[in-house]
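Reviewer 2 asked us to include a model.

Predict the structure of this chain.
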Amino acid sequence: MHSTVSVWTPRAVGTALLALLLTLGTALPGHAAKPSGETSAVEYTLTLLHNNDGESKLMPDADGNGGLARFATLVDQQRTAAVSGRPEFSGRRGVVLVSSGDNFLAGPEWNASLEKGVPFYDSIGLDHIGYDAMTIGNHEFDFGPDVLADFIAGFSPDVPFISANLDVSANDALAKLATMGQLTGSTVVSQRGRRIGIVGATTPRLPDISSPGDVVVNAVLPAVQAEVDRLTAQGVSIIILSSHLQDIDEELALVPQLRDVDIVIAGGGDENLGEDYPLSVTDAEGEDTFVVTTPGDYHWLGKLVVGFDRDGEPLTAADSSGLLPVTAELEPDPFIQANVVDPVQEYTAELAARVVADSEVPLNGLRGAVAS
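Predicted model (structure tokens):
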């Protein structure tokens, strides 16, 4: 994940990539995958709630915004409204919640988890929220595969961690989770009579930017398409790709080479799409694919409401789709506040008060300066 939040613009991505986008599919903002008159054919409405790059920002900021406890409250509100509130379109309704990676990161809050041990605070809070799929990002490997296995061990066995292009067979701890089905290339969620496939992918740059050890990183495109083809052969007609490729431009270049993917959640870039949410890109068969992402640190929840026809083809995205802020006005989830935020705050306060040395000059500990 990048250290600064940017409002997305079609920035320079290199001559070859730009040519590819112009030739195979242009990313355009807009809510209509098909002409708006086709909304009458909507038979199923899916609300996709999503976030990425939470990166252990469990506590709210100085203004009370963000933090995992308030984020959980917003998720709960939106999950309820998706199936019992005023309907966007006619027909049955379902809702899924997906994280597209970088679910923890080194820092004082993560240190609290490491000192506590399994289950980590991040695992306790995220498991309580109840994700339908957790994508594996690059930071999940910053402490090696065994710590990632410990992180996953803190979740209920029915919470899948997904990445189609990772081969974990050489690592005993992760291979065991794969055998149990908790670490997998994809998962299928049944919602109100429809089956939704969610495929994961991790950046191929993983060996260069993290510490995957004996985990093998395969090429993204063939791995993802093979997993999509496997799901469609089983009759799964709605497909979501949750990929952590470090920059939304990577997903925008990938979509024109894919078939049968309806929605892509991009992780790792920390982009704020603003009013351009969702983007729409043409795939390899000339069909439109929605592409979404959020800024990180549990300050935003993405909400994409899509109407599908009988065959699982996306027809349109509702005007209510967009980025929802996690504000101080939200009541914190009491379980996460008591079992995650409060003990982490106590730990970090004690850590901040601990004197380890004296410096005769000011020290700059800002993340951007330290990481550059």
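Confidence is low (pLDDT under 50) at residues 1-7, 9-24. The CA atoms of residues 46 and 94 lie 5 Å apart. We have added this to the supplementary material.
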